[in-house]
Write a structure and sequence with these properties.
5-stranded mixed sheet; Nuclear Transport Factor 2, Chain: A; alpha+beta; Rossmann fold; globular; Archaeosine Trna-guanine Transglycosylase, Chain: A, domain 4; 3 domains; 24% strand
Length: 476
């Protein structure tokens, strides 16, 4: 690999100055094949035995990522036509990128911000850890990239989430001292991506440290203004550059001495910054020392760390009561397919209308007034007018992927096996057949899935099920 001259100078200087990291094998590691990984969803998977069975089903061995629970190294490409991917059972993710959300360790009841969230892997993990009990704000400054973020949040079935398309400064101005935890996967020079993305080395020449350092500094300052006393920031990059990593945080703490680094020596497989390092308590993944691409991560706390869980001030947990006919139609359809457990889990909070769309809110949406919102709450579906003048409710696939098998009535769920040709037909948007052996009701709305993992809705009538899988999501 041909490296940029500035990068070579930077890294040679690093290894000559900081002998606690050996240089041997560093440059050679860029000639190796990039590692692939998947992370199983905490909202879909309940045990390690289930993970092992799914790995076998995917034709993969059990090779866990040491710094991420639910993360595994894999040999094959995933996604595309894989039904488990479409069901949100796992998220394809470079193994090193799994570290920051693990370090953040979001909890139910917290208010959490992922400030640079696209494409969404870290935000999904945060939402899974929060178990739908709290407020997750996933922000992406690029509108085009926010679309990928939205799709991944929906696929993962994350509840209690708002997606913003904002600048960090606007969020800080609108929501000062609001968040319990903030994740910053900062835009960076991308040196750790050189072996994975040939374009990263070219991009480095235009978007290297000189461009990234001031941008990162401004993002950190905005995060500081948003963060509650006792809260924490996890800052990460995929670069080796000390000025973007350790020195960036050292300068931040000099400006804000109330912060301190929280070390995580319990995490194995990575290089921990000891007392002889540039920033004690920080963490790095080196491609010649660990099984992953280059990554930097540090956890800093504002004052004395507190277990804040302050979302309770804004949550709506009561059972839904409404006289709105559109909302009643949506709830009627959901009631048709939900089990007793599902009614208890899903039919709570507040169902609101935005135009023809219906959303389930578990928090006050007025919190985000004045900010550019891409999505707020859980998108339940739309009221569609018919030629006859009547209106019908059409459920969204977002709600299908947010419902677990135990929350669905047995006569309203068609679980297909991998070798059932109806599975690929469903993902293509085709009408599928049903038989008495499927044990389904004679008519009405059902959910279709792979095994116990829902994929989407269908409308059953006798021996056929009309496909309701979204056109934009279908296999070509």
């Amino acid at each position: 690999m041909k490296f940029p001259e500035e990068f070579l100078k930077e890294m040679n200087d690093f290894f000559s100055r900081y002998t606690y990291v050996p240089q041997e094998g560093f440059y050679e590691s860029f000639e190796k094949e990039p590692l692939k990984g998947i992370r199983f969803s905490r909202t879909k998977i309940n045990s390690s035995d289930e993970e092992k069975a799914l790995l076998k089903d995917l034709g993969e061995g059990e090779n866990p990522v040491s710094w991420c629970s639910g993360g595994y190294y894999i040999n094959n490409e995933t996604g595309g036509k894989e039904a488990l991917y479409h069901a949100g059972v796992y998220y394809p993710q470079e193994p090193s990128a799994m570290l920051p959300a693990q370090v953040m360790a979001a909890k139910p009841g917290e208010i959490v911000l992922d400030l640079c969230a696209a494409p969404g892997g870290k935000a999904c993990r945060l939402g899974e850890d929060m178990k739908g009990e709290g407020i997750l704000v996933a922000n992406e400054i690029s509108f085009d990239r926010s679309k990928a973020l939205l799709r991944n949040i929906e696929r993962s079935g994350i509840k209690g989430c708002v997606i913003l398309n904002e600048t960090p400064e606007n969020i800080a101005s609108r929501l000062p001292l609001f968040f319990d935890k903030i994740l910053i996967d900062a835009p960076c020079s991308g040196e750790g991506m050189f072996r994975r993305d040939p374009g990263a080395a070219k991009s480095y020449m235009n978007y290297g440290p000189k461009v990234c350092v001031p941008l990162q500094e401004s993002i950190l300052e905005a995060a500081h203004k948003c963060l509650k006393e006792g809260g924490s920031i996890v800052y990460s990059t995929c670069t080796f550059c000390v000025d973007e990593d350790e020195n960036q945080i050292k300068r931040f703490i000099e400006r804000h001495p109330e912060y301190h680094v929280k070390a995580h020596p319990e995490i194995t497989g990575i290089t921990h910054g000891g007392e002889d390092s540039i920033l004690p308590g920080s963490m790095r993944i080196w491609p010649h020392l660990s099984e992953g691409d280059g990554h930097f991560c540090v956890h800093i706390v504002k004052g004395e760390e507190k277990d804040l869980k302050s979302a309770s001030d804004y949550l709506i947990n009561s059972a839904v009561k409404t006289k709105d006919k559109n909302v009643e139609a949506a709830m009627g359809m959901l009631d048709e397919v939900l089990s007793d457990k599902g009614r208890e889990d899903i039919l709570k909070g507040e169902f609101i209308c935005h135009g023809t769309g219906i959303f389930q809110m578990t928090f006050d949406e007025k919190l985000f007034k004045g900010l550019k919102v891409v999505k707020t709450g859980l998108y339940v579906g739309d009221i569609k007018p018919l030629k006859s003048g009547k209106k019908v409710f059409e459920p969204s696939n977002s709600i299908a992927l947010a419902i677990n098998r135990s929350e669905i009535r047995d006569d309203s769920y068609l679980g297909l096996t991998r070798d059932d040709d109806r599975l690929i037909k469903y993902l293509r948007g085709e009408t599928i057949s049903v038989t008495p052996e499927d044990g389904l009701k004679a008519s009405g709305t059902i959910l279709v899935g792979i095994g116990n993992y829902p994929l989407g809705f269908a409308k059953i009538n006798g021996q056929t099920a009309k496909n309701m899988y979204p056109k934009a999501w279908r296999l070509i």
